């Protein structure tokens, strides 16, 4: 037995034994243990294999800085790789597995990687790119991928749930050590709203106060602009899956904390000593050894050698000795040992080697002894099963540099301390460099075995790698990091950064401040992507907007389609109808009978005020001065760069009252644009507008019988006759005995058509009423598919044509561009390149054989031209099989299009094997004279 | 990042949309001729190394367009006003 549980002491509950497994083997620990302390208590010292060389590794630390003991927790979809055993709270039934070993931890076949060490030397990844490609693909890449890596993904969906919250406070205290607790007490007593976050689970000595919130198991992982902090609280990670809170409750919570001030009390990490074979299990940080003793009542060994260069270690060595660990030797780097060390050595009867170093450790899967080189250069071999080392402490200043703060080297304590701080942040205690590294004499590299002297344990970076990188010209600290992988991966160099750059400084003959340091980025410790997503995944990734006739559509067996956030009825299949049959039937109903369709999703903006007309004149490209009350007009909106932004209609309901519609896709964008035009460009205009998209259920009622159906709904004496209410008329009648409505005579389908709007709550009732009222005309609900088919038959541009790259000229709408006024987009729309007739311009296409389908996205070429990109003359934007014509048709953008009507063009689609000749025709396929809508 | 909307108070970045330089001025010549002034207004932007006046839209709030003066080196917000008051 080497490592073992002490008979008394510790913050563990010996009355609550907990069973757990590691690599399938059962062990027992106690409540209050971490996985790491419980493993040590069971004398399990080999906990992982290293990243590149698969060397045996044990615990070095007792907290988040642990670079070696990465384990996989849980199983199935719950499996989580790369968790540090030192931060895993033990619970009954915990399953943990070591990582990066094959086939087992003790007999790792890839340990031979040590023989391949040259393959993984500094810059190995970059150098492999210079090898022959065939070697790379067949040999090196598979070998490297097999050998190097951290953990495995479960390859299943994450079954856990997560939540998010926003927290606000006056003072955020980060860290629940002595300094953090003192700060939180002071701030709370002063009346401030205080939040304290501590990443651990040990109970904190804090008062119960309404203005003090304490979040345990909570890591502040990032600092962001404006006093915003990112934190993750682990809610059920420490509970067995059978625990009520772990079933159904969220696993973790992502918190955005907004704080006026923050107190960073994150403490310090101890520095390892860099000497030969310093990665053997049993070689640990001195402070970690003391923590295992005092907090967990575990002695990590029985015979210890201490390796130190400062006096903070002294109380920790006393703790070890008090726990019965025999201190075989104290190796003190300093030529003259300090008074504190001399007193200690006398008290615990341990020999001190002053001015000495450890050259190397011995052992196979655990340390069995060390070679000490004393002040006279004599080698002394000392057997031991534990090395407690301390090269000093590094303030944990990660959060201070997230907003670009640069750490400063403090020569007196041989450590980086926080430099420029984020606004509102104050650093206290060891994190600020207070009270650490007493009488330190820095030592960065010890002994004569640089190729086996590990600097970065997690990334397997040795002192020799750093020396090599410098020799190969990567002497800047940022280059060093990328070239050697020093300080990368989940660890971010918590134990390695300062040692690494100090060795670089020594090699380059520069000081440490001259060498500089890399800065830290969020997250401080790894964050599961699931917790950042929170509950917003799958169906809940974005909200779903339902139309006011959604229930009606469901009851009528609609198939739905997503249109932005909206869920719209796509078609209403009857019986065994497929999509095509349903759409053909719906189109036929509108062309020859009557149908209705929910068009609520079109953006509706209510515009009022004395300057309404002036405002419309400014935002639309066409004119509005002469629009009479009770009339609707088509409107075209440009962006300031002259391209088309959106189109729609606008009705004048009163002298100072208009209602605008936008396309479904651009509703929010147009609203934002109009706010910009008003508030930024023309604030003097006296106009107000508001989106009323959600307030009105709007239904298109279209077809030769539309008027007869509508007549039965509109309250008398409203006159629907063609003379009284012609095409492009608008009114505000009441319907069904007093319901306020807005009625527009508009036709997107090309047939006699109306759009009827009622308050949104009447949407389902209006649809049901239309079915009943129009039953004798066989009134037919239709969906977006039929709507789209009919607009293509009529050649109306929509989303595929309003693609942000088309001009009014391209869409055949150049006649709408007013010459008499200033409007958004006027100037740049007049640029020669935007009015060039050779630009791809809207045309219609019909396959010459009137049979072969055309596909959107197909390219257009002259029939005799070679199939090259240089001969590309445009593309198909929208394509359907027309129920009305009985054959395929398409809309397309074709260079010099209108001048080529009557010609033949090749429609070429190499991806889907489309190749067909088509006639170029005018883009209006149905009722080109437009007489039907005036019926 | 947090922006103190003059109407809504300090709110999180996720409520706002960025629109770019607030110091460019739309030419007041009616837009008949697409001259250099127009091209500059639409396309040309300074890449300021320091304080920058920029437009933000409070889209998930009051719909106000705001002029935010922000130091592009430090992200410090030096002032926020409603765009309609700037004109
Ligand atoms: Zn606001």
Structure explained in plain terms:
- The complex is a heterodimer of chains A (935) and B (87).
- Chain A is of the alpha+beta class and 935 residues long.
- In chain A, 20% of the residues lie in helices and 29% in strands.
- Chain A starts with a strand and ends in a 14-residue tail after the last strand.
- The model of chain A has no long low-confidence stretch (mean pLDDT 93).
- Chain B has a single domain (2-86), classed as Folate-binding fold (2-Layer Sandwich), CATH 3.30.2270.
- Chain B is 14% helix and 38% strand.
- Chain B is globular.
- Chains A and B meet through helix 16 and helix 20 of A and helix 1 of B.
- The structure holds zinc ion (ZN).
- Zinc ion (ZN) is lined by residues 5, 7-8, 58, 61-62, 64 of chain B.
Please count the helical segments of chain B.
Answer: 2
- Within the largest sheet of chain B, what's the order of strands? 3-4-5-6
The appropriate CATH architecture of chain B is: 2-Layer Sandwich
Identify the quaternary structure here.
Answer: heterodimer
Helix content of chain A: 10-25%
Task: Please outline what is shown here.
By secondary structure, chain A is of the alpha+beta class. In chain A, strand 18 (303-308), helix 6 and strand 19 (326-332) form a beta-alpha-beta unit.
What are the defining features of this structure?
heterodimer, A: 935 residues, alpha+beta, seven-stranded mixed sheet, B: 87 residues, mainly beta, Folate-binding fold, four-stranded antiparallel sheet, two-stranded antiparallel sheet, 2 helices, globular, binds zinc ion
């Amino acid at each position: 037995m080497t490592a073992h549980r002490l008979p008394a002491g510790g913050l563990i509950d010996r009355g609550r034994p907990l069973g757990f497994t590691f690599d399938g083997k059962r062990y027992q620990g106690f409540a209050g243990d971490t996985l790491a302390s419980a493993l040590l208590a069971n004398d399990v010292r080999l906990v992982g294999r290293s990243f590149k060389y698969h060397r045996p590794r044990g615990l070095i630390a007792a907290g988040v800085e642990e670079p070696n003991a990465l384990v996989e927790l849980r199983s199935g979809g719950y499996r989580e790789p790369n968790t540090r055993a030192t931060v895993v709270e033990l619970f009954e039934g915990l399953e943990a597995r070591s990582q990066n070993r094959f086939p087992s931890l003790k007999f790792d076949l890839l340990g031979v990687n040590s023989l391949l060490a040259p393959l993984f030397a500094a810059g190995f990844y970059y150098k492999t790119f210079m090898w022959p490609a065939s070697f790379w693909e067949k040999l090196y890449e598979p070998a490297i991928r097999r050998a190097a890596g951290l953990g495995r993904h479960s390859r299943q969906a994450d079954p856990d749930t997560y939540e998010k919250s926003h927290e606000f406070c006056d003072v955020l205290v980060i860290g629940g050590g002595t300094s953090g607790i003192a700060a939180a007490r002071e701030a709370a007593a002063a009346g401030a709203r205080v939040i304290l976050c501590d990443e651990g689970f040990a109970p904190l000595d804090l008062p119960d106060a309404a203005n003090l919130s304490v979040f345990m198991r909570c890591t502040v992982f990032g600092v962001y602009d404006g006093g915003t902090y990112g934190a993750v609280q682990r809610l059920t990670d420490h509970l067995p899956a059978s625990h009520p809170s772990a079933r159904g409750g969220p696993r973790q919570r992502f918190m955005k904390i907004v704080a006026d001030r923050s107190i960073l009390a994150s403490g310090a990490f101890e520095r390892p000593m860099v000497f030969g074979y310093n990665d053997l299990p049993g070689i640990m940080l001195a402070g970690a050894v003391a923590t295992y003793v005092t907090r967990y009542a575990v002695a990590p060994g029985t015979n210890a050698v201490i390796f130190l260069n400062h006096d903070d270690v002294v109380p920790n060595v006393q703790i070890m000795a008090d726990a019965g660990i025999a201190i075989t030797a104290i190796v003190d780097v300093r030529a003259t040992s300090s008074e504190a060390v001399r007193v200690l050595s006398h008290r615990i009867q341990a020999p001190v080697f002053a001015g000495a170093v450890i050259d190397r450790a011995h052992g196979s899967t655990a340390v069995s002894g060390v070679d000490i080189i004393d002040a006279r250069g004599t080698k002394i071999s000392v057997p031991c099963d534990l090395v407690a080392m301390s090269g000093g402490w590094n303030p944990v200043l990660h959060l201070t540099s997230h907003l670009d703060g640069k750490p400063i080297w403090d020569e007196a304590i041989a450590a980086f301390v926080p430099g420029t701080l984020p606004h509102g942040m104050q650093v206290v205690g060891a994190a600020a460099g207070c009270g650490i590294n007493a009488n330190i004499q820095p030592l960065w590299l010890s002994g004569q075995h640089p190729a086996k002297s590990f600097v970065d344990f997690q990334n397997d970076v040795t002192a020799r790698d750093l020396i090599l990188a410098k020799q190969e010209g990567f002497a800047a600290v940022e280059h060093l990091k990328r070239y050697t992988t020093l300080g990368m991966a989940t660890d971010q160099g918590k134990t390695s950064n300062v040692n690494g750059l100090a060795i670089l400084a020594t090699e380059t003959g520069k000081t440490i401040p001259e060498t500089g340091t890399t800065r830290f980025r969020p997250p401080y410790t790894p964050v599961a992507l699931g917790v950042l997503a929170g509950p917003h995944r799958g169906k809940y990734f974005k909200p779903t907007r339902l139309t006011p006739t959604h229930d009606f559509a469901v009851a009528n067996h609609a198939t739905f389609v997503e249109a932005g956030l909206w869920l719209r009825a796509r078609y209403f299949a009857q019986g065994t109808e497929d999509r095509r049959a349903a759409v053909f039937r719906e189109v036929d109903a509108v062309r020859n009978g009557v149908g209705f369709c929910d068009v609520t999703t079109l953006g509706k903006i209510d515009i009022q005020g004395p300057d309404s007309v002036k405002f419309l004149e400014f935002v639309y490209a066409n004119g509005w001065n002469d629009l009479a009350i009770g009339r609707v007009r088509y409107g075209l909106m440009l962006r300031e760069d002259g391209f088309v932004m959106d189109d729609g209609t606008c009705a004048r309901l009163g002298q100072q009252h208009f209602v605008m519609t936008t396309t479904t896709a651009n509703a929010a964008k147009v609203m934002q644009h109009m706010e910009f035009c008003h508030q930024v460009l023309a604030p003097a205009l006296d106009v107000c507008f508001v989106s009323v998209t959600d307030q009105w259920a709007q239904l298109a009622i279209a077809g030769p019988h539309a008027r007869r159906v509508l007549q039965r709904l509109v309250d008398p004496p409203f006159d629907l006759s063609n003379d009284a209410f012609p095409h492009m008329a608008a009114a505000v009648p009441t319907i069904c005995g007093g319901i306020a409505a807005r009625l527009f005579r508009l036709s997107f389908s090309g047939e006699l058509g109306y759009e009827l709007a009622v308050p949104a709550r009447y949407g389902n009732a209006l649809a049901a009423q239309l079915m009943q009222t129009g039953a004798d005309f066989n009134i037919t609900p239709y969906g977006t598919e039929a709507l789209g088919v009919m607009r293509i038959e009529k050649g109306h541009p929509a989303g595929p044509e309003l693609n942000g790259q088309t001009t009014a000229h391209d869409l055949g709408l150049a006649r709408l561009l007013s010459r008499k006024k200033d409007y958004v987009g006027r100037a740049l729309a007049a640029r020669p390149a935007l009015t060039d007739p050779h630009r791809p311009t809207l045309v219609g296409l019909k396959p010459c054989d009137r049979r072969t389908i055309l596909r959107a996205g197909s390219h257009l070429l002259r029939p005799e031209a070679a199939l090259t990109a240089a001969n590309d003359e445009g593309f198909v934007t929208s394509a359907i099989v027309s129920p009305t014509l009985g054959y395929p048709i398409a809309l397309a953008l074709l260079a010099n299009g209108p001048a080529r009507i009557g010609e033949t063009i090749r429609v070429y689609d190499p991806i889907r094997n489309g190749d067909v000749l088509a006639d170029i025709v005018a883009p209006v396929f149905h009722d080109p004279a437009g007489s039907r809508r005036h019926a | 990042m947090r922006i103190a909307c003059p109407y809504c108070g300090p709110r999180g970045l996720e409520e706002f949309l960025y629109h770019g330089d607030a110091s460019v001025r739309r030419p007041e010549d009616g837009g008949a001729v697409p001259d250099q002034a127009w091209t500059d207004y639409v396309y040309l932007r300074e890449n300021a190394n320091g304080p920058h006046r920029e437009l933000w839209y409070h889209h998930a709030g009051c719909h106000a367009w705001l002029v935010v003066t922000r130091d592009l080196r430090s992200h410090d917000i030096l002032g926020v006003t409603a765009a309609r008051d700037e004109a």
